[in-house]
Description:
Elements: H1 3-21, E1 24-25, E2 34-42, E3 46-49, H2 56-65, E4 67-68, E5 73-74, E6 83-91, E7 94-101, E8 105-107, E9 112-115, H3 120-135
Amino acid sequence: xxxxxxxxxxxxxxxxxxxxxxxxxxxxxxxxxxxxxxxxxxxxxxxxxxxxxxxxxxxxxxxxxxxxxxxxxxxxxxxxxxxxxxxxxxxxxxxxxxxxxxxxxxxxxxxxxxxxxxxxxxxxxxxxxxxxxxxx
Length: 136
């Protein structure tokens, strides 16, 4: 193999790897997901439905700004000890389930999940909304 071919092959491999590792949006920005239910997980396993206490449109916009990994990972289950919030939504007529906490991820159908790259602002916004509601 000539040096020129090796160089071209190296560039193509690097571009493919870069594309595979580049995060993508959870939902298209012009079509935010429809939030169905939001649950807060407390005491490691107690789920509290907080959907009615939140501004769903604002949450949908924040959710659409989140990015996920392009490549899925295999996961057969998770423990609620590390979960703070669970969000069920519809995006382009597909179910979307977000698990927010220590290891935040999103999936359409298990067991193939995508890691959320920037879930911390979404968690902080949910925490802030709940703190405001609890003061009222």
